[in-house]
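Structure request: N-lysine methyltransferase SETD6, Chroicocephalus maculipennis.
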Amino acid sequence: MVGEEGAFVLGWDEVLTEEELATTLKVLCMSEEEFKEYKEQDGWEDDSEEEENSTLSYEALSRLKTPCKKLLYDSVLLTLESYGSDLKAEQDLLNNKEAYEKLSRREQQALHVRYGQKRILHQLLELVH
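Returned structure:
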């Protein structure tokens, strides 16, 4: 469901892999009985009209049902825990000109990428909390 990498792609304003995330949330938030019924009715193919009408902008994510919001929230927390440092540590390093300049160009670029990823994840936490 989530592709080869097993991850969803988030941008600053919306989910870029919205179809995969919408399907995953829908399935993971179903009861076992709902899932069986959905599967028996070939629901996998009949959702195209519903999915066309439901884009996953960040505003839409904030309106998800509570179980889906909780699932997203917990997933984001797990993702943030997988980093070696938190958002504040990245911000502090970016603001410390002397320490930043001691980093190699590659380390600086990696810092910017991590910081951007963490900012997006924190934004998502606020939306679904």
